[in-house]
Specification:
This protein has 451 residues and is α/β, with parallel strands linked by helices. It is built from 13 helices and 12 strands. Helix content is 41%, strand content 16%. Helix 7 links the parallel strand 6 and strand 7. Helix 1 packs parallel to helix 3, helix 11 packs across helix 12 and helix 12 packs across helix 13. Bound molecules: glutamic acid. Glutamic acid binds next to strand 3 and helix 11.
Length: 451
């Protein structure tokens, strides 16, 4: 597997004639006016990635417009009584990117800087992720602008229940199915499930995934995203002829994705030389004892102070010497500023949107291979789909079945991306999006336009 140069360095959408007939004279995607409401730097980034794949596919303008703009969105402001007795107004969002593929699917994010544009970008990425994985869903994303780390459990419960009530007109087991994302977990999904069920008068487990197993969640959902990242790494290693025990990894982020990926890599004999959390990074060139790091975090909450490691600046850790970098924290971490200095040979994206388009170009020029987010972190939504199927079937699968189906589904998505990359002569991100967009645009065209 080799990195394929992005193009002649032109801006996205500006590419000259391409196989399939797109010419430089056609409208540039960047120029299409976007609804002000959801326009934001992250949404622009998702559009740029889309534009490049759409150019390669010579996608008709009519389909582009339909796939670019979020199909349905809800923004709400709602009051919540805090523990102090004070009433605070919170803003919540839910963006459904396309309704062409079936119900919509995607997580709920609780973050102090959450905005409409961020949800719109993440919803679009969910569409490509679901399509690439062959799931019968369009993408969605939502959440509440709040800082979950400063709120009590009671306050978070009241926020979640009220937000769920606000979402009642647009969610449902065959309409839109939320799941955990940054700042939310099984606990919030249990509250969501209960509030929805109370409002309709009976239990509806298929309205949300990532629920506790005791409430009809599936075994294996908690670890699915991190494990899926490792399955992607195994697929890439097989193709590259690399060996896990001989390779060094840097994992940015030690949440649900990064910690599981680090644990699974360590269990397979790989050396995880650095990990980080919001306070900073710790590194050990001989490899960190990840089970000991996990025990430390269970007790101290942060990585800070872990013995047998050196503290490293959170940004500098991305530039440490390693074979594989796994960004599993936030978006826009690999940019044009640090991409020239990265010392890894492979980037496997555990987070959504960690690499900017400018950084993508630099990495491609430098021969650094990227396994993109929509492929590498799709394990979470794939197992969410398994959970939704089980909730509908009222029948639970065994852990081994969940894991083996996840492995098979991720492997076939990986193979599809690599085959598309070869066919179209593009790097993996564009190949993944091209493959996903082809499927969604076909469905959109078949459903045609009503009335
Ligand atoms: N929030 C996860 C993601 O970004 C999972 C979404 C889901 O399971 O629906 O992929």
């Amino acid at each position: 597997m080799t990195a394929t140069a992005l193009d002649d360095g032109s801006a996205p959408g500006q590419a000259a004639a391409r196989p399939g007939g797109m010419t430089a004279g056609q409208p540039r995607f960047d120029d299409v006016p976007l609804g002000e409401e959801w326009h934001s730097p992250l949404y622009a980034m998702a559009c740029r990635q889309f534009a490049r794949a759409a150019d390669v596919l010579a996608l008709e303008d009519e389909v582009r417009t339909r796939l670019l703009e979020p199909r349905r969105s809800l923004v709400c402001n709602f009051p919540v009584r805090m523990d102090s007795g004070e009433v605070v107004n919170y803003t919540g969002y839910r963006v459904q990117h396309t309704l062409a593929m079936g119900p919509t699917k995607g997580g709920l994010r609780y973050a102090p800087d959450l905005g409409f544009g961020e949800c719109a970008a993440l919803a679009m990425w969910m569409t490509w992720k679901c399509s690439l994985a062959g799931l019968p869903f369009g993408g969605a994303k939502g959440g509440v602008r709040c800082d979950p780390y400063t709120l009590s459990a009671g306050e978070l419960e009241r926020i979640t229940r009220r937000y769920t009530a606000e979402l009642l007109p647009v969610v449902g087991p065959d309409m839109d199915i939320p799941a955990p994302d940054m700042g939310t977990s099984e606990r919030e999904m249990a509250w969501f499930y209960d509030t929805y069920s109370q409002s309709v008068g009976y239990s509806v487990p298929a309205v949300v995934t990532g629920k506790p197993v005791a409430l009809g969640g599936t075994v294996g959902r908690h670890d699915a995203t991190g494990l899926g990242v490792v399955f992607s790494i195994e697929s890439a290693f097989e193709e590259l002829g690399w060996s896990l025990p001989e390779s060094r990894f840097v994992v940015q982020g030690f949440g649900n994705v990064g910690s599981v990926a680090a644990r699974e890599l360590h269990a397979r004999g790989a050396k995880v030389v650095a990990v980080s959390d919001i306070r900073g990074a710790i590194a050990n060139p001989h490899g960190l004892d990840i089970p000991a790091v996990l025990r430390w975090v269970a007790e101290h909450y942060y990585l800070e102070g872990f013995p047998d490691a050196e503290p490293v600046d959170g940004e500098a850790m991305l530039e440490l010497d390693c074979d594989v970098l796994v960004p599993a924290a936030r978006e826009e971490q690999i940019t044009e500023h640090n991409a020239p200095r990265l010392r890894c040979k492979l980037v496997v994206e555990g987070a959504n949107g960690p690499t900017t388009p400018a950084a993508d170009r630099i990495l491609a020029e430098r021969g650094v291979v990227v396994v993109p987010d929509v492929l590498a972190n799709s394990g979470g939504v794939i197992v969410s789909y398994f959970e939704w199927v089980q909730s509908h079937q009222k029948y639970s699968w065994q852990a081994l079945e969940v894991q083996e189906r996840l492995r098979t589904q991720m492997r076939s998505a990986y193979d599809r991306v690599r085959a598309t990359a070869t066919d179209l002569g593009v790097e993996n991100r564009t190949a993944a999006l091209a493959s996903a967009i082809t499927h969604v645009s076909e469905a959109s065209k078949l459903r045609a336009i009503y009335p």
